[in-house]
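User: Sequence in, structure out. Go.
Assistant: Echoing your sequence, followed by the C-alpha cells.
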Amino acid sequence: MSTFPVSLRAGGRMVGISTHVRTLLTVVVMSAMAIAAASSAFAAEFIAAASPAVGEARARIHVLRREIAHHDELYYKKSAPEISDVAYDRLKRELAALEKEFPASATGDSPSDSLGDDRTGAFPLYRHRERMLSLDKSYSEADLRGFYTRLTKRLGRNDLVYVVEPKFDGLAVSVTYERGKLVRAVTRGNGIEGDDITANALTIRTLPRELRAAAPDGSTNFVPDLIELRGEIYLPLAEFNRINHEREAAGEALFAHPRNLAAGTLKQQDPREVAMRKLAIVFYGWGAYTPVTELPATQSEFHAHVRAWGLPGLASFSTARTADEIWSAVQAFDRSRPQLAFPVDGAVVKLDSVPLRNEVGATEHAPRWAMAYKFSPDRAETQLLAITVQVGRTGLLTPVAELAPVRLAGSTIARASLHNREEIARSDIRVGDFVYVEKAGEIIPAIVGVNTARRPVTSQAFVFPVACPACQTAVVRVAGETAVRCPNPDCPAQLRRRVQHFASDACVDIGGLGPAVIDALVESGRVKAIPDLYRLKRDGLLALNGVGAKSADRLLSALERSKHAELWRFIYGLGLPQIGTVSAKELARRFHKLDALAAATAEDFSAVLSASSSAALVAYLNVPRNRSVITDLLSLGVQPAAPVATTTIFAGKVFVLTGTLPHLTRADAEAKILAAGGKVSGSVSRKTDYVLAGEGSGAKLDAARSLGVTVIDEAALLERLREN
C-alpha cells in the first residue's frame, strides 16, 4: 500500500508536503468531520426518537395538525365551526408549544404558523397591495399586561397612548377606494390574496360607493389617491334575530351564530340572495395608502377621517395610557355587550401613534403594536333531561336539548338547539349528562361540552329516530345536506307548523288561533290544509274542547279580517321555498295579486329573485296540490291588499326603528311607513332620514344622535300621517 509523507504543523500551517497533497488531505479531513457530525446528529435523533416522551409528542403534533386543518376548513371555507374560538386557539397554542419544544418535528407549513384561509375557489382572486395580517390574541389580564410591558420596553418609554376598540365578530375584508371611488372588496383569504366579493359587498346599504370629500363642518377633507380600508362585514343582531324568528315560526333549525351566518351569506354566488340579509360593515384600519405623506398620524385621527369620508366607523372607542387604564377600558366594553346592536367577541388594544407602530413592526402573522382580548363567554353547567325531536313545516327534524333550568347571561335557559344528529354523535351527548351551556354570539344557547366525570354509568348514546315522530313515515336525508326530513306532506306536525306560521302576527295575523286550537283543529280533521281555515263554521268550533261561544266568534272575526291582509303577508305565510319577508314584499310589489303570482314564469320571477330562488318557486307552483292552495284561498273570498302607497309624504325617506313603541307593533309602524312611500332599514347610517325611537332604545338611538339624524317618536309619526 502506498504511503504519503506526513507533514508536521508549524505555527498553525502545514509544511513539508505539496499543494495537491495538502488539498487532498484537507478534503479528507473535512469529509471526516462532516461524517462525524452527521453521525452525531443521527445518533441524537435516533436517541430522541427512541424516547417515549418524544414519540408521544410527535403523535400529538400529528393529531393536532390534522384537527386544526379540519377546523380551519369548517370555519374559513364552510362558515360552520364545530368548536368555540377559545377551544380552537387552545389547540393552536398547544401545537406551537410542542413544535417549539421539539423543533425536529416542526414544518414550514404548520397550521400553528397559519393565518387561516377563507378562499373558497368560487370567486376570482385578488392580491392585497399590503398583506392583511391577523391579531395576536389574549384571554387573560396577565396576557394583556404582558403586551403593554413588551411595548414599553421595546420603545424605551412609558408615555405611550393606546386606543381600545370593540372587536366585531364578522368576516374580515379589505375595501379599496381609488380617487375616492369604491373599486374592490376582497376577503382576507390567506393574507396575501383573497376572494373578490365586490358584487356581494355592494349590496350592503351602509357601504358608500364614493368617499365624501368635505368634512361635515365644510372644511376641506383629504381623500387619498388610493386606500385599502380594513374592516369587518357583520350581521346586526336585530337582523339575526329577525331571521331566526322567521325560522322558528317555520319550525326550522335556528342559525347558531351571527358571524357564521354573515360569512356564509357573503359567500353566496348571487348578490340578490346576499341582499336579502341586511349585512353591515365597519372600518377600523387600513393597508396600502397613497400618498404615504398623508397617512394619519394616529389611530384616533384615522377614526376622524372615516367619519369625515362618510364611512361606517366605530361609534365609540377609548384611549388609555397605563396598563390599568387599558384593562379598565376592556372591562367596560365587556359590560356594555348586552346593549350593543352588533356582535362583538372581544376588544382590540392598539398603539395610537403610527410612527411608533412602524418602529415596532410586525411578525409574519400579526402586528406587534396590537393585541385582541377575547371575552370569555358566560357558561353554566346543568343537566340534560331529555332530547326531543321537533318536526318543522318543511319536514325538517330538529333535535332540541331539554335542560334543567339554569341562569345564564341574565336569563333562564331551559332549552338549547342541538342542530342535527351529526352534532349529537360527534359530541357524544347523552340524556342524563351534565353539560356546559354557553350563549353563542351572546344570543343563542348552545351546548359546548359534556362533563363526563358526572356521566351516569347507565347512560346510553342517543339514537336518532329513523321514522318521523309525528306520522311514523321513514325519514330521508337529502344528498349534500346534514338535515333529516319527513317526506310526508300530510304529516300532522308539518301541517300544525304551516298553519301556525300562516296565522302568526308576522303573516296574516289571525288572533285567537293559538297552538292549542290549531292542535284541536288538526286532530279533529277540520283543517287539512291552510284554505280549510276559511271553511270553519261556528258549530264546528264550538265542538272543540276549550272553545266557547265568545272565543269562536272572535276567531271567526279574525279570520274574516285576515282575508284582506297585505299581499306580502299571504306570500310569506304560504311558506313558499326560499321566500322570506324581504322577498315576499318584492314579489307583492311586482305582481299585486295572488293569481298573478301563481301564473308567473321563472323569467317573471327573475326580475325580483335570484336564479335558484326563481327555479325553486316555479318547481313548487308546478305541483298541483301547492297551486290549489292559492286557487282555494281565492275561491273562499281571500282578497289580499295590494301594496299601494296611500300618501307620498315619506317618499324616498329611510327610517330605522328602535325600541318598543307605546301602541304600534313594529310591523304596524313599518307598514304605515311603507304605505306613505318610505323605506325601512335595519341600521343607522348617514343615509338614514328618521329614527323612530321607543322605550328601551339603545345603540341605534346613540348612533342617530352622533350622526345628526332626526329622531321622532310614535306620536310624531302618527301626527305627520294624519296631516296628510
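User: And one key feature?
Assistant: The chain has a mean pLDDT of 84.
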